[in-house]
Amino acid sequence: MRPEDATLYPDGSGLKRPVSMPGQAWVIALAFAAVALGVGAWWGSSTIGGIEDSVRLSLATVEENLEREVSYDIPQITTLLDLDNDSILAKFEEEGLAIYNLGIEGEPAGDEEEGEPTLNVMKLPSDVSPSDAAVMLSRGIANLDAARAAKLLNGSWTLQVDREAGVNDVVRYVDFGSGSVEAAIESAIAIEGFDPATVAEDTQGVDDAGNTYKQGTVQYNDATYTWRISAIALEEVYDIAGLPETAVYVGIRVME
């Protein structure tokens, strides 16, 4: 028996034993570490590989969307000049074009009972449905990735008809095939059947916005109209990485 006033010291002999893992525990720990290292390496490799595959897939999709067979069917604007909105849409329907309504903008031209509001429509590629177009357009073309932009823009065009101050019809589209701004303008002149001889020295050049343009005149139904074709690199309009640098944004305008 110890005296009641004696100090009690706990037994610390267990703390003096060597701090080491048994051999079997070391084997198990090393095995877990090896498995963890292997899983980490596999995950990292899979992630990097997945990103690379995704990039390759995206580029392939852009290329496929640009090489697919689509028809632009760009209208000759002069054939629309004396048509009202309903007649223009009926003409497109007869031609089998898929037309998406971008919305009526502006106020009626002239007398409200006789004038018509601006017509603003988009001709869709034959393999793009109106519902798919609605989703892509709701995001904004500038916010699309290259694959979706190529899908929508290759084979499409927009038409805006504004009669507020006389006839002012504009068709806009992206030319992926011509390869240069100058070639795209010449292609547009040929599509519309315009006479390049009507272009004067002072009605061609580069405007303040950076567009290269040519302007001339055309006769239709005993009236003279002015046509103007403007073109600029697509990347100056939409900053979408992955689209060809040679793509050209083209505008064709016919006005009184």
TrEMBL record:
Keywords assigned: Membrane, Transmembrane, Transmembrane helix
TM regions (residue ranges): 25-44
Keyword Transmembrane: yes
Protein name per UniProt: Teichoic acid transporter
Species this protein is from: Muribaculaceae bacterium Z82
